[in-house]
User: Fold this.
Amino acid sequence: MNSRFKFLYLNLLLLFSLSGKAQEKITIGEKQIISSTILNEKREIWIHLPKTYNDPGINPAKYPVIYLLDGEINFDYYTGMSDFLAKPPYADMPECIVVGIKNTERTRDLTPTKSQKKSPVNPGVVLFNDSGGSENFVRFLQEELKPFISKNYRTQNYSVLAGHSFGGLFAVNVLLTHPEYFNAYVANDPSLWWDQKVLISKTKEYLEKNKKFPMHKTLYVSQANNEEQNKNWNSDMTQAIEEFKEIIEKSGSLNYKHHFFEDEVHGTVSYPGNYDAVKFIFKGFRTDIKKLSENPKLLEEDYARFSEKAGTVFSPSETYLNTILKFMNNNGFKESEDYFLNLKNRLYPKIK
Amino acid sequence: MNSRFKFLYLNLLLLFSLSGKAQEKITIGEKQIISSTILNEKREIWIHLPKTYNDPGINPAKYPVIYLLDGEINFDYYTGMSDFLAKPPYADMPECIVVGIKNTERTRDLTPTKSQKKSPVNPGVVLFNDSGGSENFVRFLQEELKPFISKNYRTQNYSVLAGHSFGGLFAVNVLLTHPEYFNAYVANDPSLWWDQKVLISKTKEYLEKNKKFPMHKTLYVSQANNEEQNKNWNSDMTQAIEEFKEIIEKSGSLNYKHHFFEDEVHGTVSYPGNYDAVKFIFKGFRTDIKKLSENPKLLEEDYARFSEKAGTVFSPSETYLNTILKFMNNNGFKESEDYFLNLKNRLYPKIK
Assistant:
C-alpha cells in the first residue's frame, strides 16, 4: 500500500465508522439560501415538507404554502403543529409546506414607514433607525421567494402569511397594499401603534376607496393581555388593535376573527395564536369519517363547501382517501368502500 | 493509479460531493435503541435536548425530563412547544429534555388489566386481546429507561409523564400504583372506561387506604367533546372521566386541573391539552423581567415560591440570568445589573 493510498483508505474507514456510530437524527426541514436581488443580500429560508410529500405509495401531491415570518423563532413548533393538525382522519387543515423566513434586519423589513421612537426605558436611545423597508421585503416575497418555492416544490395555489408583532404589522400592511398576494393573513398581537397608527389611517383609506376587501380573504388577529406592557412601555398597542378591530368588523367584507388571550403577554401569544389562526382559516375542513359510512357523498359536499369558502378548490388527499378506505374495509362497509375506491381512482389514477 | 485505489478514490469523491450538495438539515432530536430485558424487546426512543444543552458559553446545566407516550405521534409538536415556552424572558416553563417513547404493542403496554371488547362497529371482531401489560411497561420506564436517560444526559430530578387515550389511562394508573415515580402526570382524554372503569374503583380504593396522594403531585386531565364518539362507539368515555374528576376534586390532595375542550374530539385534544397541561404544571414559573429592575430580589422569591409548590428546587437558569443582565445593561439599570451579576457568579461560577 503506498502512503497516499493508505491515507485515503484510512480516511474512508474513519468516515464510515463515524457515520456508523452517529445516531439517527430526527429532522423537520432544511435550510436554503436565496440570493435576493431586491434586498441585495442572501436570505436564509427554512423549508418544511409535510409527512406525505415524499411518500412513494401515493401520487405526487401539491400542497398549500404557509409563509412564516421570524422563522428562527416559530419554525419548530409551527411545523409540528401543522403536521399534527393535518393528520387524518381528524385533520383540521390540509397538509402544508411551511416556509420560515429568517431575519436579517427585522425592523427594516417589517415596518411600512420610516419612523423613530425614543426608548421608553432609556430616552437616550433612539430606536428603529432602519425602519420603513416593508415594500421591498414584500417584493422579495412575491417576486423571488414564492417563485423559488413554486419552482422547487409542488405547491397548490393557496398561501398564508403569518407574523407576530412587527410581523403582524407587516401582514396587515400586505393585506392593505397587495391583498391578492395571499389567501389568508395572520397577525399575532400586531404593532398597529406603529408611526402614529399609520395602518389604521391606511385601513380607513382603503375602505373609503375600495368599499370592501376582495372576496375570500381571511384575516386572523390575536391580541395579548398587554396591560403591564402598556404601562411599562408607554405603548398604545392595545388601543390600536381594538380600533382596527372595530373598523374591520364594521366593513364586514373579510373572513375575520379577532381573539383576545387573557393569559398571554406580547412575547408568548404567538403560540396559541397560530393554533387558533389555522383552526379558523381552515374551519370546515374537518370531515367526520364515521358519518361517511352511511353517507359517502358527504365527503365531496364538505369539500365543495370548504372550497367555496376558501376561494380555491381543495380535494380530499389520497392519504385521507386511503384512511377512509381502510376504515370502511375494517368495519365491513362494503358499499361505501366501493364508492371511495371509485372516487380515489377518479381523483388519483394509479401510479404505473 | 491502480484500479483498487481508483475505485476508492472515486468513492471518496462521490461521498464528498454528495455531502457538499446536501442542504443543511434542521434537526430536533435523535433516535436511540434500548434493549429492554423487562419487555424482552428493543425499544426505539426519541430524545430531544433543549436549545442550550450544548451551549459552550454556559456551564453544563441539568434539565427536567418529560416522558412522552405515543412518541411517534406527539414528539415533533411537543418539542417545538416546550422549547418555545421555555424561551426567556417570557418562559412559562423550564427548558426540558423530552423523551418520546415509540410504540410496539400499544394496547399491551398501556392497559392495566386483561380485558376484551367486541368491536362496536363490527361485533365479529374482538379487540384488545393483548391487553394488561402496563405493570411491565412502567417497570421498563422506571428501571431501564430512566436510568438510561440519567446516565447519558444531564437530568434534574423532576419528571413528567404525558399520555393520551390509553396513554392517559396509563398515566393515571402509574399515579395510583407508583405515585413517587413522576412529579406530574398528564392524561389527555384518558380511557377511564377501560374494563368496567377499573381505575375508578382503584382510585376509590387508593383514597380509602391512603386518605390522600403524596405531597406536591400534579395531575392534569383534558377531556374532549366526545358526544359524537360516544354515540357511534357505545362508549362511556365522558362519563368515566367525569366520575373520576368528582373523586379527585373531593379528595383535594392533588395539584389538579381538569379542562373540557368543547371544540376538540378524542383524536385532536392532545395538542391543546399538552399546551394547557404544561402551563398548569409550571404555573408560577414565569417571572416579570421588567419588575426586576426595581426589585431584583423578586426573582429569587418567585423561584422559591415555585420550588415550594413543585417540591423540587428550581433555580434561574444561566441563560435567563444572561438575558436579565443584558436587559439591565441595555437600559442602564446599573444597580440591578450588579445584583444579578453577583447572583450569577454565586449560582454559576465561571467556566475556566
Summary: The CA atoms of residues 296 and 336 of chain B lie 6 Å apart.
